[in-house]
Design a protein that fits this description.
- The complex is a heterotrimer of chains A (113), B (288) and C (146).
- Chain B contains 11 helices and 4 strands; from the N terminus they run ααβαβββαααααααα.
- By secondary structure, chain B is mostly helical.
- In chain B, a hairpin with a 3-residue loop joins strand 3 and strand 4.
- The chains are: A alpha+beta (113), B mainly alpha (288), C alpha+beta (146).
- Strand 2 of chain A pairs antiparallel with strand 2 (83-84) of chain C, so a sheet runs across the interface.
């Protein structure tokens, strides 16, 4: 169970609607993004880990936390528009600079009933 | 499907509300504090470790460095014997100057075929002077000051320390990828290293001064060479340039030494010891 | 010494000129967003029947944004410390909004009533050397219907 699966007081779906509910208003595109850099200490640890393989716990947590923030930012945009759900949520991750990654979430803000 | 309701976004959600300069200041402080701690700790450790290199290893390293010099050395030259004599006289005065016992391997003198006036020491006690320097000095006192300055570096094991430090910083830099990330960080480290080497120069100056006074009984004319070759004065930028350059002495450095003569009550008048004739030419035979 | 002075000049120029361009760009983005607010942008539309669609066409908007020297330097320090890269946020935000606007404006020129099923793509197109300032392409694409 990652931090993302925890409920926020707003419905998030990857579907084109909310099952059992009807979309009564659209507000358009909402997006949240955050850019994170890993720090040198973790870099060195990761360098060692790359020799033996396995999960990079530090990085997993870092990316989860960052992705959570990008979702929170998207949700905040939706709330500013007065929405109670974001449908068709998509994630994108990209490398923006050496050692830095952007976590990006976007969707459509709607009001459902 | 409900209707579309156009609404304007009133807040910048995706941008952290912090001033970029504040952010930079915060980052800079964090990096500087941790950097200084690491730099200081590792630097001291490296220079301490380097001075514990065995004499044989040191000789080997020194031989390798000297062999890799891009400049030709003049070896079978009677001037080398003269320099060796002068140096051993100076070394004998170390005791009278109360400078403590030196623990470096026996000196090896080399003359470099180079017109620039310079002298340097490397690990393994290789002391190199350029032909340019020999041609430029006008009295033995001047030459002795330059040589004593280099002896000061050897006495404090500066070549070894510098080597140890640069090895550690190069290793650390490549481990962290600092060398690639931006040109700024290496130059910060360079500045720190330069201030470190400035400190070494000052200590070597003091050593040389005390040694010269012990050897000749006075400090007269010993700074003549530096005064003739002093850095051009460029006003406010002087302090900055002084940081970068170590060998051509800046006016400030010369002034400091002159004041030190007065503070220590060392005589600054006395007869200059002449140099052997044709010291600027190979084997003292007049050059044409 | 000269290196340090060049560095400080580059930082200064990067900061002041970069900030100036950024605020100009933001002003333009905000004005254009206001202008085009009446056209809905949706991330769905692939699996629903669209009642009013007679015609459909794909629209792509893309922009490549580069970092200024000040931001690159801040980011290189941030790379040592770790955490949120504040200076890049505005860069990416600008790029993404610009890409959306370009797509939207093209769709409006075609006569679209809405743009649906929007997707984003971001790519780092910095040069071979790692020390080069980063250059990011942001692309937005979707289907315009009328």
């Amino acid at each position: 169970m990652t931090s993302l699966s925890r409920p926020v007081n707003l419905i998030l779906t990857t579907l084109e609607g909310v099952p059992g509910k009807e979309i009564i208003e659209h507000y358009g595109l909402v997006q949240g993004s955050t850019i994170r850099a890993k720090h040198v200490g973790k870099d060195i640890m990761a360098g060692f880990k790359n020799i033996v393989g396995g999960e990079l716990k530090g990085y997993t947590e870092l990316l989860q936390e960052a992705r959570k923030e990008s979702v929170e930012r998207m949700v905040k945009q939706a709330q500013l528009l007065g929405a109670n759900a974001v449908v068709n949520v998509r994630f994108a991750t990209s490398s923006v600079a050496p050692g830095a990654a952007e976590l990006f979430a976007y969707g459509t803000a709607v009001k459902v009933q | 499907m409900g209707p579309y309701v156009p609404k304007e976004m009133t807040e910048e959600v995706n941008i952290t509300p912090i001033h970029p300069l504040m952010n930079l200041a915060h980052l800079f402080a964090t990096v500087a504090v941790t950097g200084l701690l690491i730099y200081g700790g590792l630097g001291i450790a490296a220079s301490q470790l380097a001075t514990r290199i065995g004499p044989k290893t040191e000789e080997k390293i020194g031989a390798a460095i000297t062999a890799s010099l891009p400049v030709k050395t003049v070896e079978s030259d009677s001037r080398v014997a003269y320099l060796e004599d002068l140096l051993s006289e100076l070394q004998r005065s170390v005791e009278t100057a109360k400078l403590g016992k030196a623990e470096y391997p026996p000196l090896k003198v080399r003359i470099l075929e180079m017109d620039a006036e310079n002298a340097m020491v490397s690990a393994g006690s290789y002391l190199m002077v350029t032909e340019g320097l020999l041609a430029a000095v006008t009295s033995e006192n001047e030459l002795a000051f330059v040589l004593a300055h280099e002896l000061g570096h050897l006495h404090h094991r500066d070549p070894l320390r510098a080597m140890g430090r640069s090895l550690v910083f190069v290793a650390l830099g490549s481990l962290l990828g600092i060398g690639q990330s931006t040109s700024a960080l290496p130059s910060v480290v360079n500045l720190a290293e330069l201030s470190y080497s400035r400190q070494q120069e000052t200590t070597a100056d003091d050593y040389a001064q005390a040694l010269i006074v012990a050897h000749y009984g006075h400090g007269a004319r010993s700074l003549g060479f530096f005064e003739r070759n002093r850095e051009p004065d460029i006003g406010a930028l002087n302090k900055l340039v002084e940081w970068q350059q170590t060998h051509p002495m800046s006016s400030d450095r010369i002034e400091r030494l002159k004041n030190r003569f007065q503070q220590k009550n060392w005589p600054t008048t006395g007869a200059a010891t002449p140099l052997p004739e044709n010291i600027g030419c190979a084997n003292f035979t007049s050059c044409n | 010494m000269i290196e340090l002075i060049t560095f400080l000049i580059l930082i200064g120029v990067g900061y002041f000129v970069g900030q100036h361009f950024e605020s100009q760009h933001y002003a333009s983005i905000k004005a254009r967003e206001k202008q085009t607010l009446h056209i809905p942008l949706m991330t769905f539309g692939a699996k629903q029947t669209l009642p009013h669609a007679h015609e459909a066409q794909m629209f792509v908007g893309s922009v490549v944004v580069a970092n200024d020297y000040f931001k690159t330097f801040s980011a290189s320090l941030r790379n040592l410390v770790g955490g949120r890269m504040v200076v890049y946020e505005s860069l990416i935000d600008r790029g993404r909004r610009e890409a959306v606007l370009r797509m939207k404006e093209e769709a409006i020129a075609w006569g679209a009533s809405q743009v649906i099923n929007i997707r984003f793509e971001t790519a780092n197109i910095a040069g071979q050397q790692a020390n080069q300032a980063s250059c990011v392409e942001v692309m937005a694409y979707g289907t315009g219907i009328r």
